[in-house]
Design a protein that fits this description.
Number of domains: 2
Structural class: alpha+beta
Number of helices: 12
Radius of gyration: 22 Å
CATH class of the largest domain: Alpha Beta
Largest sheet: 7 strands, antiparallel
Number of strands: 14
CATH superfamily of the largest domain: DD-peptidase/beta-lactamase superfamily
CATH architecture of the largest domain: 3-Layer(aba) Sandwich
């Protein structure tokens, strides 16, 4: 099981040469002051490593379109742990999902699909009458614990078809993290999106589509990846490469580890073995398949911060970015979900901060981002015109994330 724009109005004024020089100097001084304050982040990280909370951390902060802080400390853990560097390429896990969502939204911009299109429009196997499994009275609760008694279900008709919106907002009911579903087909070394995803059309859902929020960590975004293939006529990984990675200059990004970058790529965690999603040879996984450096991921996040554009080239429309960062789940995204607490909403693939105090976050309202395996995290922070990327190979990630976030926010004026 795998776990998981801001455009500011400008005022043009005339400046005398001396005043212009003063403005430039002041701006440079402010930037240097911010960089100096960000140095405190290194000490915060070191304290957590020394305390044994995590074996290592990579941190990156970008502000006003430029990287202003990068730090890498520690290793991936164990006696022979891989030493982390600022250019380390790591498995971003579910931080793949916002990139997959961007591919979907790019096709929406071209009117090749709509958020409320049924999945069956693109994958006919989802056209059969859907069913939802409901716990029978007296059944033990569902559990992934070894030797736990199996839950007993009865099937009822689905009240509505699955849509692209359901998949993007984690309200589909198609596989819930931590809840076993033996109907989900296994993958093998030859699996592809085209061969595996259609088989999900026969899987009973865990709840009526749109009625709940529950994290589909390893299926919903693979269905979306297959929809991208069908709607575009291009393999998913090639579409992502051509429409996102290449335009953004993300040269240290790939599905599965890139052999050409082996010297700075962290080893595959042995817990995941030869998972086809993580290895990425034939299965180009939209849910958790990408390997990316922190600097590369910051380019993707910066594009979202800049309203969908990068260096004058549009990856997404402003409307699409606004849709991504808008709450689409009302109050369904509740306290305790996926390392986020009350005060956080859910958009299209990303969490959106509504009330930082209620969420226990230092990140300001309007910020949005997502985690991977609970230990990788990125934030787009419009209020500060900033991006934050954090990678921990393991350990007690939530307190480390929050302390880094607090230190970064204290440094940014």
């Amino acid at each position: 099981m795998r776990f998981v724009t801001l455009f500011q109005a400008g005022i043009v004024v005339a400046l005398l040469p001396g005043a212009w020089a003063h403005a430039q100097s002041g701006s440079a001084s402010e930037a240097e002051a911010v960089k100096g304050k960000l140095e405190h982040v290194r000490a915060v990280v070191k304290q957590h490593i020394d305390a044994g909370d995590t074996p290592g951390v990579i941190t990156l902060v970008a502000r006003n379109g430029s990287i202003v802080f990068q730090d890498a400390q520690g290793t991936t853990g164990g006696e022979a742990g891989f030493r982390l560097g600022t250019d380390t390429v790591f498995w971003v896990a579910s931080m793949t999902k916002p990139i997959a969502a961007t591919a979907v939204l790019a096709l929406m911009d071209e009117d090749k699909l709509g958020l409320d299109d049924p999945v069956s429009k693109f994958i006919p196997e989802f056209n059969r009458p859907g069913v939802v499994r409901v716990l029978k009275a007296g059944s033990p609760p569902p559990s992934a614990a070894p030797n736990a008694p199996k839950a007993v279900y009865e099937l009822v008709p689905a009240e509505r078809p699955l849509t692209i919106r359901h998949l993007l907002t984690q309200t589909s009911g198609l596989q819930t993290i931590g809840v076993p579903n033996e109907a989900i087909p296994a993958q093998d070394a030859q699996s592809t999106l085209a061969t595996w995803v259609p088989r999900l059309g026969a899987v009973p859902l865990d709840f009526q589509p749109g009625s709940r929020w529950a994290y589909s960590n390893s299926t919903a975004f693979d269905v979306l990846a297959r929809i991208v293939e069908v709607a575009s006529g291009v393999p998913f990984d090639r579409f992502v490469q051509q429409r996102i990675l290449d335009p953004l200059g993300m040269t240290s990004s790939s599905f599965g580890p890139n052999p050409a970058l082996a010297a700075r790529t962290m080893p595959v965690d042995p817990r995941f073995g030869q998972d086809p999603c993580i290895i990425g040879r034939t299965f180009k996984c939209g849910s958790a398949g990408m390997w990316i450096s922190a600097a590369d991921y910051s380019k993707f996040a910066q594009m979202l911060l800049d309203g969908g554009s990068s260096k004058g080239r549009a990856i997404l429309s402003k409307k699409a970015v606004e849709l991504m960062r808008t709450n689409h789940t009302a109050a369904l995204f509740v306290a305790g979900q996926e390392n986020f607490k009350a005060g956080v909403d859910f958009g299209l693939s990303v969490a959106v901060v509504r009330n930082p105090q209620a969420a226990g976050l230092s990140i300001p309202a309007g910020s949005f981002g997502w985690d991977g395996v609970g230990s990788r995290r990125f934030w787009v922070i419009p209020e500060k015109n900033a991006v934050l990327v954090m990678f921990l190979p393991g350990g007690k990630a939530p307190p480390v994330h929050r302390d880094i976030e607090r230190a970064v926010m204290e440094a940014l004026p």
